[in-house]
Design goal:
Residues 1-25 form the signal peptide. The chain is mainly beta and 548 residues long.
Length: 548
């Protein structure tokens, strides 16, 4: 091996090489110290769980990203890490917002720090929104089979059911609330519902009813959400902290659908031949007399109703001790129905009924009409075939009975009259005068001033009738009387007059203390009046000398 001969190497060459090496080393160090590190501009964003954030930057040197919260991590393939790092170059890193530690009360904040070389800086400030409740539903509870639940929202308001006429009974709309998170509850805070709504809560169900104590609102009138307001349902945590609300508009449907009441009602109506006298008889056989017209007030939803009239044909049934009762044998609708003699006029909720006079023929001694009022909605359902819907098995459909305002029947005038009777063998028997006629006959004399009626009768009797009658009294059976009759009579000489009832019949009874000394007298008047003061008949008593 040949030894290196330093003598042959130029010292100047060695020195030049060493200077180059020093210069190269100095250049590398300066190059590293002069790298320009620029951090991205700080961003502040708000996100919800599940959001992903793309973070882009240029790193001239090795870098590292760090999240300061466990709920914000960097996506690394199938993994999620709180830190991630890499080499110099253009970078895009995905950060994901997780649900760790999230609650319903507070928002959370964190920072993402970027480190490049020996420098670091916050490049993201992230706010994670507090947990939002979900799955809240507010629905009606079906009451009938086949009925579907209605889900309520800001666009689909709650419509509170109409109440009934009966103020002691409420009509409820039942709704229920449900929410996905079993740790949450739903409630209505005091004052968070309109005061016209009465609310009863039972677990997650609510009964909503019209508050009848709300005096400035009439329960028969409907109103919309502009007047109805809204109910605020609050979602609460276990410590009753409110984390959210749902505001549902509310409206009121008005009086219960299908309800209609007329006040007063006229169950049985008999109309005089001239149409001026109207007798209404109730279920207790009590009669009330009206003059010229009858009026009734209609109570129904929003005051909306339709009048329906149709003809009824039939005859009167007579029962002992009772007013004759009209028995309908059939009904006629449409153009063939004779109803024009009944005039029904409405003014708002007030209904007035008047009647035309009639001259009866030999074949027809009465005519009848049924007057009904239907709630508007109910009428719309049946208007295309009234007869089929109203008449069922030859009778008025029980469903619509309450809609009958009256069933007037016009007959030939039946006036009060009298038959003279005396007591024999414990019973009352009619007696006749000397020619076989009733002792009491229709008056046909001159007009009597102050009579108050043209229905006047004269009774010509003898004092001996009192002694002939086994109880010493003379009776006048009152035909076609009415309840509540009263007598108004002259001052009599030796006898008195009163009213009595025997075997279901009304009588005027004349009594005397001594028939043998009863003086003769002429023109003694007895007026029979109704309870409202109308003179129904005038009976003139003449006591003449005994024939033998």
């Amino acid at each position: 091996m040949k030894a290196l001969n330093l003598k042959n190497i130029s010292w100047s060459l060695i020195i030049s090489a060493m200077m180059c090496m020093v210069a190269f080393a100095s250049c590398s160090d300066d190059e590293k110290e002069d790298v320009n590190i620029t951090f991205p501009e700080l961003k502040e964003e708000t996100h919800v769980v599940g959001d992903e954030i793309e973070i882009s930057f240029n790193a001239p040197v090795d870098w590292q990203l760090t999240s300061k919260a466990a709920w914000c991590k960097f996506v690394n393939g199938d993994f999620e890490d709180a830190t991630t790092s890499g080499k110099a170059g253009d970078q895009t890193v995905t950060a994901k917002i997780l649900g760790d530690g999230q609650d319903y009360i507070n928002d959370n904040t964190t920072e993402i720090v970027l480190k490049m070389g020996d420098k670091e800086q916050v490049i993201y400030k992230i706010t994670r929104s507090k947990k939002a409740f979900s799955g809240l539903t507010i629905k009606s509870v079906p009451e009938a089979e086949g009925e579907e639940a209605v889900e309520y929202s800001a666009e689909n308001p709650i419509v509170v059911k109409g109440c009934d006429i009966d103020t002691n009974r409420d009509e409820y709309l039942v709704i229920e609330t449900n929410i996905e998170d079993a740790n949450l509850t739903v409630g209505i805070k005091e004052g968070d519902n309109p005061d016209w709504i009465k609310i009863e809560k039972d677990n997650n169900t609510y009964k909503l009813a019209f508050n009848k104590d709300k005096k400035d609102l009439d329960p028969k009138y409907s109103f919309g959400t502009d007047k109805g307001g809204k109910i605020i349902f609050s979602v609460m945590t276990s410590d009753n902290s409110i984390i959210g609300t749902a505001e549902i508009p509310v409206a009121y449907e008005g009086l219960k659908e299908g309800v209609l009441v007329s006040s007063p009602a006229y169950p049985n109506l008999r109309i005089s031949q001239d149409g001026k006298k109207i007798i209404s008889t109730d279920a207790n056989n009590k009669s009330t007399v009206y003059q010229d017209k009858i009026e009734t007030e209609i109570i129904t939803r929003d005051d909306e109703f339709e009048i329906v009239t149709f003809e009824q044909v039939g005859s009167f049934m007579v029962f002992p001790g009772m007013e004759p009762v009209y028995q309908a044998d059939g009904f006629i609708f449409g153009e063939d129905a004779v109803t024009d003699w009944v005039d029904v006029k409405t003014n708002g909720t007030k209904c007035t009924i008047t009647f035309e006079p009639y001259v009866f023929s030999y074949n027809y001694d009465n005519r009848g009409v049924v007057v009904m009022a239907f709630p508007k909605k109910e009428y719309e359902k049946i208007k295309n075939d009234l007869e089929k819907n109203i008449i069922v098995d030859d009778y008025i459909n029980p469903r619509y009975q309450s809609y009958v305002l009256g069933a007037p029947v016009q007959t030939e005038d039946v006036v009060m009259s009298f038959t003279t009777c005396i007591a024999m063998d414990g019973e009352l028997f009619p007696i006749a005068n000397m020619i076989g006629e009733d002792c009491t006959t229709k008056y046909d004399g001159e007009e009597i001033e102050g009579a108050g009626t043209d229905n006047i009768y004269t009774s010509n009797i003898f004092s001996m009738l009192f002694s002939t009658s086994e109880d010493g009294k003379v009776y006048y059976e009152i035909k076609n009387g009415v309840d509540g009759m009263i007598l108004e009579n002259d001052e009599f000489d030796g006898f008195s007059a009163g009213l009595t009832n025997k075997a279901g019949k009304d009588y005027i009874v004349l009594s005397t203390a001594n028939a043998e000394t009863l003086p003769l007298q002429q023109g003694k008047q007895i007026k029979v009046k109704s309870s409202n003061g109308e003179v129904l008949a005038l009976l003139i008593i003449n006591i003449g000398e005994n024939p033998f």
